[in-house]
Each structure stands twice: as C-alpha cells, then as structure tokens.
UniProtKB/TrEMBL annotation, chain A:
Residues 647-674 are annotated as: Disordered. This is ABC transporter permease. Pfam families: BPD_transp_2 (PF02653). The chain crosses the membrane at residues 74-98, 110-136, 156-173, 202-222, 234-264, 285-305, 325-342, 349-367, 402-423, 429-451, 482-501, 531-550, 562-588, 608-627. GO terms for biological process: amino acid transport. Belongs to the binding-protein-dependent transport system permease family. LivHM subfamily.
Length: 674, 252
C-alpha cells in the first residue's frame, strides 16, 4: 500500500505539468477559440534554455547565442530567462499566426499550431546541445513520509504550484475585468470592440500568461521528469485529454484531471512491474490512457463541449475538383516512369519514396481536404498495415498482392473505428482524438515488445508469378521492378480517387465538409459519408504503409512515428490539402522524398529538413491556404484562359479568367436602379 | 430613379444652432467594392434625435457601421465628436463616446447581466450603474443571470443599458424592434428621448416602426438605394404618410 501511494505521489510531477498545460490550453481556448497543440513545445524551449544557461551560462537564441558569463548561471535568473523565452514564443505565435488566423477555419488553426509544434521541436533539436541529459535541481531535494510512503517535497511543491496556477487562472476569468472582457471578446469580437474592448490585447495577455505558466512548471519539473528533446512536445496529448475533460471551459477540472492522469500513469508503471500484470500490457499502456480519457470525455461530455454543432461560417480553402484529363495524367505518369528508370541507387529510392508519400498525402487530402475531418493519425493507419504485412508475409506466407490488400483492409477497419468518434466530434477536437489515437497506437502497438520483436518486424520480399519484385537485388539498392510496381499501385489508386472525388461521392464529401446539417437536409447520409471517408483514407494510408514496409524490408517503431505523421500533414498542407496535385507535390517534398534527398545529398542541409518543412507550413497556412498546387494551378488557369481564344464569342480579349469567389470584384458594379 | 434626392419641407440639410456631434459628409461605403451608400451627407447635433428610415437594403445599417469605423468609407467620411473616424480603431471610437447598439444587440450571451454591464461601465463608479438600473428596473432581479437565458425584450434592455453606461455623446441604435413586440420598443424608446435631452446626447435611430420612431425623433431621413430620398422634421413627416410611402418605394 505504501508503495502504491509512493507511486501515486511520484506521478504528481508529470501530473503537474499536464495540469498546467491543460489549464493553459483551456485558458487559450476560452480567450481565442484556438486549441494550441504547441503549448508543450513553448515549454520545451524554456526547459532547454534553462538547461543551457545552467550548464555553461549560454543563452541560446533561435539564431546565434549569447554568453552570459564564463560560469553557469544561478537557478533563479535562469528560470526567469527561461520563462521569458516561453512568453516570447507565445506572443510571437499570437501576433504572427493566430491573430491573422482568428477568422480562419479550425483546420487552418489546428494545422498552424501543429506546424508550430513541429517547428519548435525541430529548432530545439538543432539549436541546443541535446547531449545534456540531466536538468539540474531547482526545488529542494528533501523528502517527507506520508502514510508510510516516502514522498519527494519537490513533487508536492509541483502539485501545489499547479493548483495555485489553476485557481489564479480561474479567478482571472471569473472576477477580473480583463478576464471577463477576454471571455466576452471570444464570444463576439465585434460586440467587444463596440463595447470599447481591445480583443487582440486581451488575447495577447492570455497568450503571454499561459506561455509563462507552462514554461515555469516545465522548468521546475524538468529535474524530476527528465530532459529530453521531445517529451514536453507530446506532453500536450495528456494535457489535451485533461483539458477536454474540463470541456475546454473549466480550468479547475482540467487541472484536477491532469494531476490524476499523471498519478494514474505512474500507478500503471508500478503495476506493470508486478508478476500479476499481463505481459502484453507491459509497455505503452500509460500512453494509451490519454486516448481512453479523450474518448470518454468526448462521448460522455460530447453534448456539452462548446462549438460542436457550428456550421462552417468561415471560408474553407478552395477545393480543386479533380477532372481526370488524359494529357496531364499521362505526362505525370510518363515523367514518374522516366524518373524511375533513369535514376539508380539512392535517387531511385527517393523517387519511390516520393510516390509512396504522395499516396499517404492523398489519404490526408481525401480525409482532411475534401471531407474536412482533421486527422493526425494517418501514420498510425500506415503503420498498422505495415506491421500487419510483416505478420502476414512472415508467419502466414500470404502472397504479394493479396498481402497488401489484407493489410490495407485491416487499416481500413481501424480507420472506421477511429472515424466513429468523428460522428460526434469535429474540428480541433477531432484532431485531438486522432493525435491521441496515433500516440496510443505508436506506444502500445509499434513499441510494445510483446507485439513487436526487438529486432524489428521483417517483411518477406514480394514476388508475382515467380518473378521477384524485391526492392534489393544483390548490390542494387532499389530495383526497377520494385519501383515500377510501386508506381503502378500508386497510379491506379490515385486515378481511382480522382474519379471518385469528381463524382457524387466527392460532392457528398464537400457537402459534409461545408455544413453537416445542410448536407443532411439535402439527403446525404452524413455518418456513412464520414465513415466512408475514414475507411478510404485508411485504406490509402495502409497501402502506403505496406509499400513502405516492402521498400525497407523490415519495420521498427521508428518507421511510423507520430512526428513523421505530423510532418506529412504539414507537407500535404504545403502542397495543397485540397487537391490531388497537392498530394503529388507533398510526395515530392516529403520526408526521404526527392527534395529531402536533394537537401541531404546535394546541399547537405538535411538536418534542417524538419525545420524547413514546419517553417514552410507556417508560411503556407498564414499566407497561402491553398498550398503550392492550388496557387500554381490557379495561376496556370489564369494564364491559359488569357491565351486561349473564347470558344463562343471569339472576343479578342478572350473570356475573363475564372477567379475564386474570394478574389472577386474590386470592380464596383452599379447597383441596380429600377 | 432617385438620382436627385427629393426634399420637402424646410429641412433638406438642417443646420441647427447646436454643435454637430456626428457629421457624415459625402459618404460612399459598401461591401466587396459595391457601394450600399452613395455620397450621403447627414449631420446630427447634440441633444438631437434623428430617425434614419428606409426599406430593406437602403443603406441604414451601412451608414451606422461606417459611423463607428466598422466599415471603411470608400469616399467621403465621418467626423464623430470633432475627430475623423477614418483610420481609428473601433474600440477607440467607442471609448471616445460613440455607442452603437448593433442589430444583433451585441450582448454577450455567455456572460451574466452584471458582467455585461461591468464591461460597459469601464472603470467608472458604481453610481452610474445604479442610475442606469433605475432606467431599467426590470433588470435588477436578473443581474446574476446569463444573458443567453433572458427574453428578447430583456436582452434589448441589457443592450441599451450597456450602450448608455459609458455615457456616450453619440448613440446609434440599429433596429431595436427586430424580433420584438412593438409594445416593448414603445417602452424603451421614450427613455432614450429623455436621456438625449438630459445629457445632450445625439441619437441616430434606425427603425422599421415608423410611428414609434417619428414620435420621439426631432428629424427624420428616409434612405433609398443608399441616398437621401426624403428628409424633414419628424412632426411634419408624421402628417405626410403619402410622401413617406413614395420615398419608401423610390417614387419621389
């Protein structure tokens, strides 16, 4: 019992971080309506700033660094500076991203905050000396005995800090005039301004405040929780779970849920060391808990989570409806084939990877761009299929095309299961569900030694009618046969998707995306459409995962990380989340694809790839929501229309270029006089 | 066609001896490059109540939005309380003493009545709050209730109280009667009239109920297709229903 209690208290330090992050998430959501996935990343930067200051007195900036003296800096000034950096990041995020995006659809806001999360994550890895593995203690190291359990005072202080912070935030929103004004501005910005309130300034205060609080608790907890370049980034997932339990409006509930979650994970850790604990659950269960919490929160409290039934009032990124045309399609396929045959070694591997990534991005385009369901779990679908492929080919000896089909169908089933919550939740909350699902699958399936052997999952090379389609043959890194097989599969699926999206199914998807109630009123079965979308998307993702598996020969838990999935979403968004062309672009610029190989091999700046990807995403989301493919496509059409003579009138100037409704008309039309 | 604003009576551009609180000169404003108001000039003096009338789409709301800086003018401009509106932030203009009650009332549904009023009163003394509540005694027992739970009439009272609390010198009211029984409006508007007299407050009233509007206004302007179709003292226009109708249908 004493031991049990000890673990309950041990979990309080992580719990305190969850609690403060969750309180901050609730506060930011109350003030701005944004669900900030980067809440943990700003804290991560603060943690590493303090670590660097206390190691050698260097203040590391995003560019360059300043030495604050030859000696390591003392604890108090280090913490102050660390917290200040978190505030700076939070304010920058507000001013440069979330303020311009305040009327953008929640997809853009989610993508922006995910982009910031990857960006800071990448920047921390690049800028700091991540070989420092111990954060130096800040809080007193003594311990006390409570009910027979030895409890670190620091854990109690952290939990106390979290509670004090939550109470302070609650009081701010409840009793102070700026706090009430912030809630008012979040509800109706125009009315707030007419009342003489400045919404931007009020939001900035909350951003700065929550940045400081998150940074502070992370810095204080780092000596206990540990120093790691990714931990805090993904602490946002349990924090999001806690925030959802607080229905995104209750700071107190979010804080309590965070503390309990931390303790619960710690207790699971204790349980898993016992003999009576089942072997399959020995690892990763703790990471699966937030997912369960999220699902419970959304299903039990779903009706009371705000903004649930909102129609999309804001403009969504314009969709390019695919019209399969022979010439461009043939050109693209021809170019891809030529690229495959003319290259060799690492470059051919890059082309193949790009093709596979295009398929994965297509799965994202289908689900997020066309159907409007923000999914961060694409890599989980791909990974599930990949791992299934390993079992199917090695243990069950299922032959090649059938093996992909079965594995992808398994992913489809998982996709439908993950899609079920989407029947009740939407927007940013769905993104939370899928992110939690992705983390749960990654930790509980991919990294679970009971399911995944330590040496990785081998995959038998494919063959068809006695022909070997193996990716490697002797010293050839990537065989032409394998590359062409990939191209054929990707082409068939892409054409099928384009066909589907240009027809009734595609129209149904778009209707659901723009307004679920209106779609239902027009006779579209919204639930079936959503599940179809999730199933199709997971099938594409699963096929992509199988192809990745075949191209590697074996898979480990590092093959399908959540971070890779987020980078892929970033790339799909940069390419153009609403068009098939965007998926192709995303494939070219995706991780290990052609651009990545070019940056690594030719320019030797591969280390910066993730940073460039995230930076590109941030620019895209703020400046050009249609992505590269959308923007170039639009310009191309304008140019073509200008040089193509009018079909009917043969007017010398040609028909006016088709413009998006958004760009329409600075020409004043005379108002109709009757 | 109403290209030439038809005017009757002595009051095409009334120049009162009182100082103008709100001056709209040659205003052209609209949406997506399409003007809804064209070359409009209206002036409202301190302590004066102006009824801004006209059919749907005449440009009444557009005029009010431009007056508080929510909608940038394409041409011409608005001078409120001696300072041009152009280029200033909406919240600054509001704090300078121009209050708009928008047609969706601008009440914060998720806040309580007391919180709504507290935001509006700024850092002012509680005495003002008490004074305003004397105008709307029905609100006293509702102070702790969330506005979303109030009836339409009660919400409109909150909206009006909220607009009056900072002691504005220009009050713009957009369609107070929207979704309300006329009797409710009849109860609220006389309070506005007496405040205009007491506090020397300039009031612009956009209304669909002509009789109510004309009964408390000093002057009225009828817009049609974004231009002045008819203007004159309210008392005179009350007698000339034929002219009013003609102006509404653009037949002047």
């Amino acid at each position: 019992m004493a031991q049990f209690l000890q673990f309950v208290f041990l979990g309080l330090s992580a719990g305190a971080v969850y609690a403060v992050l969750a309180s901050s998430l609730v506060a930011v959501h109350m003030a701005t309506g944004v669900v900030n996935f980067a809440q943990g990343s700003t804290a991560l930067w603060a943690v590493w700033t303090v670590a660097a200051l206390r190691t050698d007195g260097t203040l590391v900036l995003p560019v360059g660094s300043v030495s604050l003296g030859p000696e390591p800096l003392a604890a108090a000034p280090s913490v102050a500076i660390g917290v200040a950096t978190a505030v700076a990041w939070a304010l920058l995020a507000h001013l440069l991203m979330f303020r311009p995006l305040r009327r953008a659809p929640s997809l853009a806001q989610v993508v922006a905050s995910v982009g910031l999360m990857i960006f800071l994550q990448a920047l921390v890895t690049l800028r700091f000396d991540i070989t420092i593995s111990m954060a130096q203690p800040i809080l007193p190291a003594s311990d006390v005995t409570l009910a027979g359990a030895h409890v670190d005072v620091s854990d109690l202080i952290l939990a106390g800090t979290a509670i004090v912070i939550a109470v302070a935030l609650w009081a701010y929103f409840r009793f102070t005039r700026p706090g009430i004004a912030t809630r008012a501005a979040a509800e109706d910005e125009r009315a707030a301004r007419l009342t003489g309130l400045a919404p931007d300034r009020l939001a900035a205060v909350v951003w700065a405040l929550t940045g400081a609080l998150s940074g502070l608790v992370a810095v204080l907890a780092a000596p206990t929780v540990g120093l790691d370049p990714t931990t805090y980034t993904f602490y946002v997932v349990p924090a999001l779970a806690a925030a959802l339990l607080g229905r995104l409006v209750s700071v107190g509930l979010a804080c309590a849920a965070g503390l309990v979650l931390g303790s619960f994970q710690s207790v699971i850790l204790w349980g898993s060391s016992k003999t009576w604990w089942p072997g399959w659950a020995q690892a990763g269960l703790g990471d699966a808990v937030p997912f369960v919490v999220v699902i419970v929160a959304l299903f039990l409290l779903g009706g009371r989570i705000p903004a649930r039934g909102d129609a999309a009032e804001t403009r969504l990124p314009a969709v390019t409806i695919p019209r399969p045309r022979l010439v461009p399609a043939a050109l693209l396929i021809g170019a891809a084939t030529a690229a495959t045959l003319l290259t060799s070694g690492i470059w051919r591997f890059a082309v193949v990877t790009s093709a596979i990534l295009a398929l994965l991005a297509l799965s994202q385009v289908l689900l997020t761009g066309y159907l409007g369901q923000i999914s961060l779990a694409t890599m989980a679908f791909a990974g599930t299929a990949g791992f299934a492929l390993s079992k199917l080919t090695v243990s069950a000896h299922v032959p090649f095309p059938l093996s992909i089909l079965l594995a992808a169908l398994l992913a489809t089933a998982l996709g439908v299961v993950v899609g079920i919550p989407a029947l009740r939740v939407r927007g940013a909350q769905l993104a939370v569900v899928t992110l939690a699902a992705g983390i749960a699958v990654q930790s509980f399936v991919f990294s679970n030694p009971a399911l995944t052997p330590f040496e990785g999952n081998r995959i038998r090379d494919p063959s068809l009618f006695g022909w070997s389609l193996a990716v490697r043959s002797g010293t050839t890194l990537t065989t032409a046969r394998f590359a062409l097989t990939v191209l054929v599969i990707v082409t068939i699926l892409t054409l099928a998707v384009a066909r589907l999206m240009s027809g009734r199914t595609g129209q149904g998807f778009l209707a659901v995306r723009s307004n679920e109630r209106a779609a239902a009123a027009a006779g579209i079965n919204v639930a079936a459409t959503k599940l179809l979308g999730f199933g199709l998307s997971a099938f594409l993702g699963g096929t992509g995962g199988c192809l990745i598996g075949y191209s590697r020969g074996q898979l480990s838990d590092g093959s399908f990380t959540v971070l890779a999935g987020l980078t892929l979403l970033a790339m799909a968004y940069v390419g153009g989340i609403t068009s098939v062309g965007g998926a192709v672009v995303a494939g070219l610029i995706g991780p290990l694809g052609v651009l990545h190989t070019f940056l690594t091999r030719t320019l030797d700046v591969g280390d910066y790839y993730q940073l460039i990807a995230a930076g590109g995403l941030l620019l895209t989301v703020v400046l050009n929501p249609r992505g590269i493919a959308g923007a170039t496509g639009g310009q191309l059409r304008v140019v073509l229309a200008r040089y193509r003579p009018g079909r009917r009138g043969r007017a010398p100037s040609g028909p006016p270029p088709p413009v998006e409704a958004a760009d329409v008309a600075t020409t004043p039309e005379p108002s109709h006089a009757n | 066609m109403t290209d030439q604003p038809a005017t009757t009576g002595p009051a095409a551009t009334v120049t009162t001896e009182r100082r103008p609180a709100l001056e709209i000169t040659g205003l052209t404003a609209g949406y997506n490059g399409v003007p809804a108001v064209r070359d409009l000039s209206i002036s409202v003096a301190e302590g004066e109540v102006l009824a801004l009338l006209g059919p749907n789409g005449a440009g009444k709301t557009t005029t009010l939005l431009a007056a508080v800086g929510l909608l940038p003018a394409m041409r011409g401009g608005v001078v409120a309380l001696g300072t041009p509106v152009r280029g200033r932030r909406v919240e600054k203009i509001a704090r300078a003493g121009v209050s708009l009650v928008p047609d969706n009332r601008g009440v914060f549904q998720r806040l309580t009545v007391a919180e709504n009023l507290r935001l509006a009163s700024g850092r002012r003394a509680r005495a003002d709050l008490a004074g305003t509540l004397d105008l709307f005694p029905q609100l006293r027992p509702l102070l702790g209730r969330r506005c979303g739970l109030l009836s339409g009439g009660e919400q409109q009272m909150v909206a009006l109280a909220k607009a009056l609390l900072p002691r504005p010198r220009v009050l713009l009211i957009d369609e107070m009667s929207l979704g309300l029984a006329p009797i409710v409006v009849q109860g609220l508007l006389p309070a506005v009239r007496s405040l205009a007299d007491e506090r020397r407050m300039a009031v612009v009233l956009v209304e669909q109920h002509l009789d109510i509007a004309l009964s408390i206004a000093d002057r009225a302007v009828v817009l049609h297709h974004g231009q002045v179709a008819l203007a004159g003292p309210a008392a005179q226009l009350r007698e000339r229903r034929d002219l009013m109708e003609a102006a509404y249908f653009g037949r002047l």
